[in-house]
Amino acid sequence: MRAWSHPDIPSIPGRSDAPRLHDTATGSIVEARPTDVARLYVCGITPYDATHLGHAATYLAFDTLQRVWRDGGYRVHYAQNVTDVDDPLLERATATGVDWRDLAEEQTDLFRADMESLGIIPPDDFVAVTDVIDDISAAVHTLREAALAYRVPTPEALATADGPGADLYFDIRAAERAAPWALGDESNLDAQTMLTLFAERGGDPDRAGKRDRLDPLLWRAARAGEPSWDSPVGAGRPGWHIECSVIALAELGTDFTVQGGGSDLIFPHHDMSAGHAAALSGHPLAQVYSHTGMVAYQGEKMSKSLGNLVLVSRLRAGGSDPRAIRLALLNQHYRTDWEWTAGQLDEAESRLAAWSLAFGPIAVPAPIAAERAAERSDDVIERMRAALVNDLDTRGALAAVDAAVSAGVDDPALLGRAIDALLGVKL
Ligand code: 5CA
Ligand code: ZN
After folding, report:
1. What is the pLDDT of residues 358-378, one digit of tens each?
2. What's 12's DSSP letter?
3. DSSP letters for 110-144
4. Are 52 and 92 in contact (CB under 8 A)?
5. What is residue 99's predicted lDDT score, i.e. its pLDDT?
6. How many angstroms does the Cα of residue 386 sit away from the middle of ligand 1?
7. Helices (runs of H) and strands (runs of E) counted in the chain
């Protein structure tokens, strides 16, 4: 599927080291050093409501990672899904009386426009689940043939030629014996926490007929009034986690560099996606599991289901400069949970104005600036790089630029290009 346009990224002298990044699987900081191409998967949106600042913060964190890799001389291969068929989307479509396909298309379009305005580098592969249903059902079939998936008869499902319809579940215990994977490898969580999160985040621990309470749904048999597709595992639609396993394997292969998303995806989504992928391929899914903190608003996690949203599109329509939105988000550490307030946008607007004056097109030319500069642009750029490779310390990078505004630099235009390349803000 079409993504959105690529921002131009100026090249600057010197280069970043490989970034050090927090890895959820080991609970430690590790080096995200690509062997050749950096391969990145970030879980995409469920397009039933417009991009809010939580989504924007998450995609911006991985955009920063990508900019650091590029600055380090690595090529990046980036894949992202769009969950364009899933319960919350179907429920919203029914509640508002629109066709679920139209809702998904309209919201995906708005997401593209928001990402483009924020200067987020688009994925190379932007894949809608509805475009790869056959691949997903083939993968579920493979798991079933390998005895890693089982049927749970489902009276409310539509009957098929072979008898009553059945949902298909992933057999965690069988997969642990067959694949290089164990439950908890990626999330590092204990069994009780897993059970709680599973119930909160779309799982069905109490479904009768499951072998393990945490076994996740792979394929949902067709129900009246729900979209479904014919397949070797019966008519139905994909469960959630398998979409990301199949898309990531197809686009990036196994053992890719970083699997990313918000911390609400640590469990069950990323554990189960990794489990499915390991069961299908015989290899681990990714090397590093990276998660962003949750953005809150009015005291609670910003979420489409709660409705406490600050939409990027609404801020833009109200006249906010997307570069200021970007700077406000960069002024938080990506891993920390934080709460949005309007004052943060005002602060970012002042910072943008000060930076534009100092390092933008109207900045003093280099020879004149050099006479009164206390700093070399090259040194400021090295400080920005040192901050960013240190687990994406964007606040540290912003502080380095703020200090340069006061001190003055010998080549303001060069620092302006570095701000564009590394932080994605064109002054
Ligand atoms: N389609 C699935 C992933 S396969 C999904 O979680 N979609 S989503 O639209 O709910 O979220 C899209 C991305 O934004 C995910 O990476 C999610 O972790 C992240 N996200 C959602 N809410 C927030 C928030 N309040 N703060 C930070 N990130 C968030
Ligand atoms: Zn996902």
Report:
1. 999 989 888 888 888 899 999
2. -
3. HHHHHHHHTTPPPPSEEEEGGGSHHHHHHHHHHHH
4. no
5. 97
6. 28
7. 15, 14
List of domains in the chain? 20-297 (3.40.50.620), 320-423 (1.20.120)
Q: Which atom of ligand 1 is found nearest the CA of 42?
A: 16
Portion of the chain with pLDDT greater than 70, in percent: 100
Give the amino acid at 125: D
- pLDDT score, position 370: 86
Q: Tell me how far the alpha carbon of residue 235 lies from the centroid of ligand 1, in angstroms.
A: 28
Closest ligand (CA of 46):
1
Q: Which of 227, 272, 229 is nearest to 248 (CA)?
A: 272
Whether 304 has a pLDDT exceeding 90, the answer reads no
Q: Whose CA is nearest to atom 18 of ligand 1?
A: 262
Separation of 408 CA from ligand 1 center, angstroms? 40
Q: pLDDT tens across 76-118, in order?
A: 999 999 999 999 999 999 999 999 999 999 999 999 999 999 9
**For residues 170 and 308, which has the higher predicted lDDT (pLDDT)?**
170
**For residue 264, is pLDDT > 80?**
yes
Q: Which protein residue's CA is at the shortest distance from atom 23 of ligand 1? A: 54
Q: How far is the CA of 45 from the centre of ligand 1 (A)?
A: 6
Q: Residues lining ligand 1, judged by CB closer than 6 Å?
A: 43-46, 54-55, 57-58, 81, 83, 244, 261-262, 264-265, 292, 294-295, 301-303
